[in-house]
Amino acid sequence: MWQWSTDAKTWHDLEETETKRERRMFRIHRLSKACWVQYLRLMIFESLGGCPTLREVEFRDDPSAKIKFSDWVISVSSTDSSELPAGKGTFWENLFVKLLHQCEGWENGLIQQMWIGDFDKSFVSAEPQPLCAFFTGCAAPWCKRTREPWRGVQEVLKHRNLPMWGACGGAQAFAILEDTGVDKPWDCPRCRDSNNPKSPIYTHIGYTDNSKVPCGNFDKNICERGKFNMRKVAQDPAFDGLPEVFEIMEYHCGQIAYLPKGWIRVVTKGPGALTVNQCLRVEDRYIYAAQFHMELPGTPENSRRIMGNFLSLAKEWGGYNPRGKPVSPPELGVSR
Q1: Can you give the three-state secondary structure of the chain, one letter per residue?
Q2: Tens digits of per-residue pLDDT, 52-104?
Q3: Where do the domains of the chain lie?
Q4: I need a labelling partner for 241 at 20 to 30 A (CA). Which of 111, 122, 299, 335 fits?
Q5: pTM score above 0.90
């Protein structure tokens, strides 16, 4: 909370600036009316983790002033760990940062990394609003995941007010949230009751040996790892400039079994690949669920093309935008 004083001895609260569980790197506070003071200070009553840091502050004399702020994006860790980076050996969050800074015009782009449990409507709607959000992959089976941290993501996804890109596990999460939600239990193909599946939209590619193994053991799973061919099946602007068949990086054994209601398949498997639902999109929004990893190194030109296209679409739509109008659905029929 910010406080003001006329003598640096007696301090008064600026109640409009009170913020609980601050998670934002960038925030604009607007007062109900201008307040002319001699001294200001920021009071931090409690801090979890490392020491808080205030890097830069600007003050305006008009509470309703239009404030220009650089476009910024969010990289969301899709793991159960709230630590960043999320656990030993985890590097998915940093890959989106690296790819962003390789895109033309984004070499010094602003990006905030955060955990899924801190991502919700209150976070994305506060000024300055983000341009878009990227959700990382995750390795744990969905039957072992904690559902509650995904509630805020489900809320933002439901309202369709922010362009979002989910990669691999992040894409599977979008599908599960749309099809099952956080209030019902989740399962995986290893523990699933075929007569009563809990989250059937998530499945596995297949198995080299279908004998019983514990959930989370992927030794007998068929996987796609490395560079694979994708095929566009719709004219979607996120893939403008790419040929009908293009290469991109994969690293998964799970997949989305079918399209959630209101979603369209825009990319499917190409020659040599196995997963049919490679990239889905909400019909009238720039919200994507991509099984592949554009953020992995290996196909830099294609990755930069997709990332750059998506950033342009997010900017065109207005970033976080509750008044955003529906966009044209992808035009099907690209594939021969």
Answers
A1: CEEEECCCCCCEECHHHCCCCCCCCCCCCCCCCCCCCCEEEECCCCCCCCCCCCCCCCCCCCCCCCCCCCCEEEEEECCCCCCCCCCCCCCHHHHHHHHHCCCCCCCCCEEEEEEHHHCCHHHHHCCCCCCCEEECCCCCCHHHCCCHHHHHHHHHHHHCCCCEEEECHHHHHHHHHHHCCCCCCCCCCCCCCCCCCCCCCEEECCECCCCCCCCCCCCCECCEEEEEEEEECEECHHHCCCCCEEEEEEEECEEECCCCCCEEEEEEECCCCCCCCCEEEECCCCEEEECCECCCCCCHHHHHHHHHHHHHHHHHHCCCCCCCCCCCCCEECCCC
A2: 889 999 999 999 999 999 999 999 999 988 877 654 444 556 899 999 999 99
A3: 1-68, 72-332
A4: 111
A5: yes
